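Ticket #4471: structure output looks truncated?

Reporter: J.K.
Steps to reproduce: submitted the chain below (265 residues) through the standard prediction queue, then opened the result file.
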Amino acid sequence: MRTILSIFLLFIALNAFTQSKAIPFHSGEKLIYSAHYHWGLFWMEAGEVIFQIDFEQRKDSQILKMQSVGRTLPKYDWLFKVRDTFASEAIYPEMRPLLAKRINYEGKDWVRNFYTFNWKENRVARDMESNQKPRIIDTIFLPNDHIVDVQTAVYYARLWDLSNAKIGDQKLIRIMIGGEFYTIPMTYGGLEIVKHINGKNYSCNKITTKVVEGLIFRANQEISVYVTNDKYQIPVVVKAPILIGKVEAYLEQTKGVTFPKSISN
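Returned output as attached by the reporter:
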């Protein structure tokens, strides 16, 4: 439960191949997901994740403002309370982050990270603290790559067109996580019919990635993201195995965009 939004944000973004000329999202779009935890025969709807965006014109630049909020359901707060927020502003369509923040409260743990990107000087200012680490305020150089924060990566990924992708195609994306830079590999798995928790089936493109062994994941575990086979490329289902059990997220509601059309009832 403590990793619902962090896992979802990271792996919902892994559908990146050839950039599309079409804009798959518009100001006012809101996507609402239910997050479920599985452990053997044990199953529960543990939380909710909400993604929303708006565009704002600033001088000669169009700014994409993004926010994601994740929380455990109130009935489980006594067991383990989660309140996670990620937010970013990025220049569109280049998707270069300007500001990014992460504010997480998970049980007794908390994290507050704030980043300011200066692309002219190729630097990023970091202000990071948590209950486990002392506060760090500094400025570091950005790598000579296209870097995105985790929140921006969600929408950066949706700018890619999967219509010509072939099974086995791979792509790398450079993401800043916790003030550090990581290269995340992605593999296109082709078209699949995925069954939603609502009982309906959806035609989706499947994207997978391998994760690094750590506190959350075992070595070589595979994360799967299923995005709609249309111009919007909306993630419908996300499946992520963790050390104990697995986490799954399902699209429940949309605003500002039509809910994906199923292929069967």
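Triage note (M.O.): checked the attachment and the full token line is present. The domain at 4-255 is CATH 2.40.360 (YmcC-like fold).
Status: closed, working as intended.
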